[in-house]
Design goal:
The chain has 358 residues and is mostly helical. It has helices at residues 3-17, 33-41, 43-46, 60-68, 75-81, 93-100, 108-120, 131-145, 155-164, 201-212, 221-229, 235-242, 261-268, 276-286, 316-329, 339-348; strands spanning 105-106, 153-154, 273-274, 291-292, 303-304, 337-338. It has two domains: 2-17 and 28-164, no CATH class; 196-351, no CATH class. The structure holds 2-acetamido-2-deoxy-beta-D-glucopyranose (NAG) (8 copies).
């Protein structure tokens, strides 16, 4: 950390202790304290008695509060700390078009103008010291929606950001619009892209894997299933997610032992090849009666619970990741994969440049 950043960091920590603990930034705390304080002051408007919390994005102040927290809290977290229901109607068009002066997209300047105007009419509204921080908030949303080049974000994309950017597996178009960011102050875990049908199931499978991963990534059924649903990413990323960030050296796929035959034949019911149906059954089975632990993830014996899911919203989800694996192994026609080919996929796909589809 350079001196300026550490001073800001300390200022922010001091500020944060004076604010509701639920608004402590979880990710990027590099933004200067005055911008954060300014942003949080919008709560005094979003919190007005006439606000219908079941239609959160019908209010400019609540939209702006969500937008200005973009680098720290995702929209779902902002709803939660605002005591608003998690399910919301899309961004009101009236809010959007009032800010854009009837234009079909919102520019960075529109956002900045709306932000300063809202602060001016907010009781106890606090201005940020530096306009750059407000521009940076917009930049975060421009990166997610993929409009870094112009910073002009159309209605549908902005509404999508509010609706989907908190969903596990929905990744930003790009991580940042700032390509010159060389030294991230906080290590960023790669986002794992997932279709919307995933419904958080793959994250849960990775959590289950975490209990057993020290046995080897391909030596237990949960980690094999998590490796499957990481088909849109890769198993090196899975390892980074299941091991603590400070693990050194971080295990890699290349060092993991080959797929266990016991696990393979258990999943196929003894057959020489794994069918799509085998995988569907195993995936849903793995999410039924999940394990939990009071102790650490990697140590301490977990206990089986009668908690289930979240399951995918459709078996199409499993069919999709098995399709990626079938393509890589050359079995698009039958989607039935023999042991050796599946073991190769698990050991080598992470470092392969080959991404065929069926
Ligand atoms: C919401 O408004 C009430 C009444 O004006 C106030 O007491 C409360 O502190 C506000 N909450 C937040 C989180 O700003
Ligand atoms: C609040 O918003 C919801 C969702 O649009 C709507 O169904 C409800 O009628 C609104 N309540 C009031 C009091 O306007
Ligand atoms: C949305 O806000 C407008 C005015 O700000 C209000 O007239 C309308 O009733 C609100 N809609 C809902 C569903 O709360
Ligand atoms: C906020 O999240 C907590 C923890 O997940 C949950 O218990 C609470 O019900 C949520 N609040 C709202 C308003 O959804
Ligand atoms: C990009 O990030 C670097 C390093 O964090 C910073 O110095 C620079 O001002 C940023 N550029 C823009 C355009 O925000
Ligand atoms: C074999 O499969 C059963 C049921 O699907 C499961 O309960 C068991 O843990 C599996 N055994 C191994 C070694 O993976
Ligand atoms: C497992 O369950 C037992 C008894 O229900 C409990 O005492 C123990 O703390 C649990 N262990 C963990 C790691 O959660
Ligand atoms: C999707 O996830 C939600 C939240 O975890 C859960 O309540 C729901 O049951 C899941 N859908 C299915 C089909 O399991």
């Amino acid at each position: 950390m350079n001196t300026l950043i550490s001073i800001l960091y300390l200022a922010l920590i001091g500020l944060v202790t004076a604010l509701p603990s639920s608004l402590i930034p979880r990710q990027d705390i590099s933004g200067p304290a005055s911008a954060f304080k300014s942003c949080v002051s919008l709560q005094n408007s979003c919190n007005a008695t006439m606000v219908n919390l079941s239609n959160f994005y019908n209010y400019t102040s609540c939209f702006l509060l969500t937008a200005c927290l973009s680098g720290m809290e995702n929209p779902a977290q902002v709803l939660n700390v605002s005591q608003a229901p998690a399910t919301q109607p899309r961004l009101a068009e009236s809010v959007f078009y009032a800010i854009t002066n009837r234009n079909s997209y919102m520019t960075q300047q529109n956002y900045i103008d709306a932000y300063y105007h809202q602060i001016s009419i907010t009781p106890g509204g606090s201005y940020p010291d530096d306009i750059t921080d407000v521009a940076d908030q917009w930049s975060t949303i421009a990166a997610w929606t993929g409009f870094c080049a112009t910073g002009n974000i159309p209605y549908a994309n902005l509404a999508d950001w509010l609706a989907y950017s908190s969903v596990p597996g929905v990744c930003p178009a790009v991580a940042s619009c700032n390509t010159s960011t060389t030294v991230p102050t906080i290590q960023v875990i790669p986002c794992v892209p997932q279709p919307i049908t995933d419904n958080g199931s793959c994250t849960e499978m990775a959590t289950q894997c975490q209990f057993w991963v020290t046995q080897g990534l391909f030596q237990n059924e949960y980690c094999v299933l998590a490796s499957f649903c990481y088909a849109w990413s890769n198993t090196d990323v899975l390892l980074q997610q299941v091991y603590p960030l400070n693990t050194s050296p971080m295990p890699t796929t290349a060092l993991e032992a080959k797929l266990s035959e016991a696990v393979f034949y258990n999943m196929t019911g003894g057959a020489a090849s794994m069918t799509q149906q085998n995988v569907i059954d195993a995936y849903y089975g793995g999410l039924t009666g999940t394990w939990t632990s009071l102790g650490g993830r990697l140590e301490g014996m977990p206990n089986k619970t009668d908690n289930d899911g979240p399951y995918p919203t459709s078996t199409d989800y499993v069919i999709e990741f098995w399709g990626i694996i079938s393509a890589w192994t050359g079995f698009c026609d039958t989607r039935t994969i023999p042991y050796d080919k599946l073991a190769d996929y698990l050991s080598f796909a992470a470092t392969s440049e080959d991404h065929p589809t069926c």
